[in-house]
Design brief:
about 150 residues; globular
Length: about 150
């Protein structure tokens, strides 16, 4: 999460930029009571992520509706990544070997309802699998791979 917090949007990689755009666009669509398929479908199609859209839509809808405290998602043109956006980027982009439990534990801090927690976890992990399959997953940070940073 901290690798994203307060970072300029322009400094994000392509997968991270797409993911942040998707988070922001989904929040705006849900707030405006618009269909996520219409709002996100064309972009997901261009990135070969059609199979991930239902999972992403479900995870975002549950997170925005059922979090114990409201998530702050910035406007699409905001220049920096907010705290909650950084958290969502880290959750959806978690692909390292310890990610499964870490994502569930983090979601448990946001969602107290066990059924909603399980549904959100499944949807988020299914979306992450689609990101990986499409080659759009953010890179795993060196701190989670056990490798020394490349210079």
């Amino acid at each position: 999460m901290y690798r994203y917090l307060d970072r300029p949007v322009a400094a994000l990689g392509p997968g991270e930029s797409f993911l942040l755009w998707s988070i922001r666009r989904a929040a705006a669509a849900i707030a405006g009571k618009h269909c996520l398929g219409g709002a996100l479908g064309p972009a997901f199609g261009r990135h070969d992520l059609e199979s991930g859209l239902p999972h992403f839509a479900m995870a975002m809808a549950l997170l925005l509706r059922d979090c114990d405290s409201p998530l702050e998602v910035m406007a699409p043109d905001a220049p920096q990544v907010s705290e909650h956006e950084a958290l969502l980027l880290a959750l959806f982009g978690a692909t390292d070997t310890g990610a499964e439990q870490r994502v569930r534990d983090t979601l448990a801090l946001l969602l107290s309802d066990g059924g909603v927690l399980t549904a959100t976890h499944r949807a988020a992990r299914s979306f992450t699998a689609a990101l990986l399959a499409a080659g759009m997953a953010p890179p795993i940070p060196d701190s989670l791979t056990g490798e020394k940073p490349k210079r």
